[in-house]
Amino acid sequence: MLGPSGKNEKYIYSSLDRTDWARFVKILPSKPEDEISCRTSRAELSHCPDYEALSYTWGDSNVTDEISCNGQGQRVATNLRAALRRLRYPSRPRKLWIDAICVNQDLNERSQQVRVMSQIYSKARQVVIWENSG
Fold it and tell me: How many domains does the chain have?
């Protein structure tokens, strides 16, 4: 994805600062045919914003598509991209916790976030389950 500089830019994770923080993703509204665009934010788990958690099958990690996250390219599994297309609202943002986007998959952060995953799911307003039928 080309950024403002005209060069390929990849989404960079900002630090979570503390072990009791999590990232959340806001899927921006758009028409069904539009590309996926989202923004991330961070929050302390004890003061969580109203959000939903997405539970889904990652699928083949070698089959990916690109979405826009904070104006930069983010590779996600094709299954997740299909879920985001279906779950986004046409006229308002939708705030979710999605492991593949909200957790930097480096060993340190992934290990830390696994330890608080039960809190993340239990504090969610609801858990959305996505099963790709095709």
Answer: 1
d(CA 17, CA 129): 29
Contact 121, 127 (CB under 8 A): yes
Two structure tokens written together for 105: 């998959």
* pTM for the whole structure: 0.84
Is 7 within a domain? no
Inside any domain, residue 81: yes
pLDDT tens, position by position, 41-59: 988 888 877 999 999 887 7
Cα 8–chain centre separation = 20
Dihedral over Cα of 66, 44, 106, 51: its sign: negative
Which domain does 47 fall in, by range? Answer: 22-130
The residues that bridge with 27 in the sheet, in sequence order, are 38, 94
pLDDT digits 0-9 by tens, 28-44: 999 988 999 999 998 88
